[in-house]
Amino acid sequence: MVEKRTPIPVHEAVEKIMFFASSGETELIPLEECYGRFLAEDLKADHDVPPFDRSPYDGFAIRSEDTKLANQSNAVEFEVIEEIGAGSVAKQEVGAFQAIRIMTGAQMPIQCDAVVMLELTKEYERDGRKYMSLKRQLQSGDNISFQGEDTQKGNVLVEKGTRINPGVSALLATFGYDKVLVGRKPTVGIYATGTELLDVHEGLVPGKIRNSNSYMIRSQVERAGAEPIYFGKLADDFDTCYEAIKEAIEKVDILITTGGVSVGDYDYLPDIYKKLGAEVLFNKIGMRPGSVTTVAQFEGKLLFGLSGNPSACYVGFELFVRPIIRTLLNNPNPHLKKITARLDVDFPKPNPFTRFVRSSISFKDGMVSVTPSGLDKSNVVTSLSGANALMVLPGGTRGYEQGMQVDVLLLEDEEGCQWPWN
Amino acid sequence: MVEKRTPIPVHEAVEKIMFFASSGETELIPLEECYGRFLAEDLKADHDVPPFDRSPYDGFAIRSEDTKLANQSNAVEFEVIEEIGAGSVAKQEVGAFQAIRIMTGAQMPIQCDAVVMLELTKEYERDGRKYMSLKRQLQSGDNISFQGEDTQKGNVLVEKGTRINPGVSALLATFGYDKVLVGRKPTVGIYATGTELLDVHEGLVPGKIRNSNSYMIRSQVERAGAEPIYFGKLADDFDTCYEAIKEAIEKVDILITTGGVSVGDYDYLPDIYKKLGAEVLFNKIGMRPGSVTTVAQFEGKLLFGLSGNPSACYVGFELFVRPIIRTLLNNPNPHLKKITARLDVDFPKPNPFTRFVRSSISFKDGMVSVTPSGLDKSNVVTSLSGANALMVLPGGTRGYEQGMQVDVLLLEDEEGCQWPWN
């Protein structure tokens, strides 16, 4: 007897799942390990930038009032009493018609209020003393980078939940974060189900295929910013599967199974969820591929029953699991980023359900186009490896034509999106 | 005495560096660690896909010749002699008017040449035997996924040098790569020079700033796919710097120093290269920021003297170091990917040198726009953390206006580009 399931729209499925999304735990890690992690607190300036008034050039620090009489026909002479590099401070007090040779980034001597660039001066020695002269008036504040003009102590520079890129690393270092509070990587357990599955090292035997979904999901979990835990594969046996899944739930933040969610005779997942007492949020979605994705929650923990079909499994992960992972990491834009792009091919056949076509976007003359990454039969196998996007073709009575604008979800983007569903 | 340097164009600088680019070493790693690494050999199919003729549906495998007389008014009856799930093979031989119940993905019994979908049949029992009937003719080959129709044994599916994404992981598993030959991560040594530098954990003191470039570059190195080795910071002292750099060269594939390349009194790098006997490829580039970037080669190994200014350092890494790393990883598109985008703001002031403006791209209605990520003074500090692109504004006599198409280099993209320079 074939069970009758009622498909729900994709946005409703995502809503049901996001109801159980929550922010996760945090941990303090050394700055040198922070690349690619997610900030678990706002990054704040612990000091003004610049931290002190400083010279933006190699030049001479002087008192601007001493230049009052300088002009093209009247050079004013200054005695150069000291030289300071970046990282040093002046030891001497600067008096009238005295100057300090100052390097880029060095702190202004307190008596000085202007810097004159090296190129505008003439340097010479007389009686063993150093002098320079200039023929130009300076105003107070000329050529000074003032303390706090770029940012002030206490300002929030990068917000909690942001992924740490090289620029954020630089800010963390600048403001003294030698340890960084980041989101602990959520753990995602993976079980592959199906008697037909071989381990990767095994040779092919009649009727069997190698377990590829587990490795694909491992990589998707890593790309999303979490920690995969592969528990192994399960044969199609109810009791074995039930016990294994029940134990696994305790060990992870999220549990994914692949396969066993269809309505075939060996698809045990629905019954396992039932026996566990887990609440099934839905077991059919109005989408292709991935319509038989089943998601349940058990004591607030999400159990994802993804399809055993690789493409369906892939899409199911990106639409439903990724936003949960990113929310655990405090990221405010947990979903795949949605953009629009010009469709490069025809999809004349209407489809009652929304299709997610593995695709590749490309850029030309300031415009974005999208084309399926598995256009013909021989590309089916590699279509996932060549995909950097999922094209979204809403279900309905019409087909889609080359040149139309369509929605596209970016797979390799790190910025994400708040809510891509209309 | 200020040394006179002659700037060379950016593309020439990159050419000079790429002359020393070479492919790096390889290593064999477990499949579960391969995400984000680069293939060091072509990924080939070790078997046909599908590996055998199989059923794409749940249904019955039959001999099509037995359906010759079936039509809407004449149901043909088949005895169901066996049932096979995915991963099993039929044990019995299928004779005339016999059928085998077959699950999605299961191997076709050799006597059968068609599959009829479950929905098109009627199932019943009689005298303890199972039967099904159907009212439709089938042709030989109907509803069969044929061996090798997706790909054939020996086909190259993904090329050497490709970054391993989740789809590639799936292919590696499918084709039995339980160990994967990948490019060994090149090691990139980092020394920060400058007496003004504090360690990150140190409190600020007058005239000093924390060493942020080293952590920024660490992250850039990781993003590029290599292994950073931070050697520490060096005070502005010739002998210390010389000895440290000389030793470090032996330990890494690439050596980066930050600071000390300007023409300030404490900029020792040029002299250190000289004493080492390293060949300086260039010491000034017609670009902003990063004009004082100095690159030398010592016995074929590249020494990158990046500027101490964070933005210049950042840009110098992405333009000059990244393509060397990616070439070591066999990637055929080692440079930052170049696209064109609509300029969102005015840059009225002409600049004699090519500018690389840290920017952020955004998408709207199928078009890409670009805007500087540090538009006003207060954003200068965070402009690198918000940058996902570098806008390229070629030097010349004219400014740039809002709405113009400009070149943009993508920082977070993994596909790269063969040669972005005209």
From TrEMBL, chains A, B:
Transferase listed as a keyword: yes
InterPro entries, per database record: MoaB/Mog-like_dom_sf, MoaB/Mog_dom, MoeA-like, MoeA_C_domain_IV, MoeA_C_domain_IV_sf, MoeA_linker/N, MoeA_linker/N_sf
Matching Gene3D superfamilies: MoaB/Mog-like domain, MoeA, C-terminal, domain IV, Molybdopterin biosynthesis moea protein, domain 2, Molybdopterin biosynthesis moea protein, domain 3
This protein's pathway: Cofactor biosynthesis; molybdopterin biosynthesis
Co-factor requirement: Mg(2+)
Domain of life (superkingdom): Bacteria
Keyword annotations: Magnesium, Metal-binding, Molybdenum, Molybdenum cofactor biosynthesis, Transferase
Record EC number: 2.10.1.1
Similarity comment text for this entry: Belongs to the MoeA family.
Function, in words: Catalyzes the insertion of molybdate into adenylated molybdopterin with the concomitant release of AMP.
Name of the protein described by the UniProt record: Molybdopterin molybdenumtransferase
